[in-house]
Task: structure prediction
Amino acid sequence: MRLSDSIESFIKQMIGAAEDTEEEGIELRRNELAEYFHCAPSQINYVLSTRFTPEHGYMIESRRGGGGCIRIVHVETSPTDHLDYLIREKVGTSLTEPEARLLLRQLTVSNAISATDATLIAAALSPQSLAVPIPEELKNALRAKIMRTMLLTVVRRIQSERRGPTAMIIRERKV
Amino acid sequence: MRLSDSIESFIKQMIGAAEDTEEEGIELRRNELAEYFHCAPSQINYVLSTRFTPEHGYMIESRRGGGGCIRIVHVETSPTDHLDYLIREKVGTSLTEPEARLLLRQLTVSNAISATDATLIAAALSPQSLAVPIPEELKNALRAKIMRTMLLTVVRRIQSERRGPTAMIIRERKV
DNA sequence: ACTTCTAAGGTCAAAGTAGGTCAAAGAATT
DNA sequence: AATTCTTTGACCTACTTTGACCTTAGAAGT
Result:
């Protein structure tokens, strides 16, 4: 079995275990994990960037420096869900601006997302936002990625609101 | 947990407690605090300069010499003024991801934008969103443009909410 | 008043810690 | 054989912690 697959399933186990608790997602130390698997730390990045992408429903944030860490959150959309369908089938890997607008309209009228969220996403995908000298194809790829990541964020928020309005984790206080 | 975070939340607790009384802000002794946390005194300065800046809504004065001390005051600025200021002065034409996150944090703690908006914007600017093969400089230019467009969208929404059917909320200014 | 002492706080650079990127080499698939 | 996927390592960026050295305010001694 490939190393990457082992690391992938290890991380998925961690996430599975964390889902039973109240915690949202998991935190891991890149160097620890690399040492555990006797591999280069950058191998962890490879696994993350190939198997824990927004396309797979994962959101990642990380911090460098002392006490740094990598946080992974899995956002699950039920496969029967209309929103899930739109995200998977319509976003794809490339989105023109008109396509993006149409999709946002559909999402809004079907009440999948709020008009407010739609407006913000539209702003991020607008020509103004993407006014840098790169080929249009790359912009369309960008639109798809940004759209996907933002929709995932919205879904995550909506789900956590549904679970419990008081799920606000700020920071642990150790003094 | 990082030492700096502990110190930060300790200070914020002090400020929170002081806000219940009539006192304006708090006073602390640098050396005392450093001893309490078993760290170098300059660590306190580090925390102050990274987490209690004017951008975060804090004003700091200090006195040296015998009986010297550090005074920290949390100032409530008008959210829209602060937002305007940060858009004009801090966004610029290029934003690294850490810079963007810092800016969003500042906007959030000073109540210029909601945590929800901040999260959505952060999603748009995340490495995952911008995972296309273009040089980092272009990504930074993109971040700045996306940030500006989205913040302006937020401002416009806030302003139209104020004009709209919802009663005007006049906030008292404590300065 | 003037100088000196001492008790604060301030600055800055270096070391320490931790994650990110990229390209080249190696392995597996087609 | 060609292509694609995996693994590794050299180098980069970001955040934290510490310590040496500097500045200032007030107190004490003259």
Residues 136-163 of chain A form the longest helix (28 residues). Residues 2, 29-31, 41-42, 44-45, 62-70 of chain A lie near DNA strand C (CB under 10 Å from a C1'). The two ends of chain A are 45 Å apart (CA to CA).
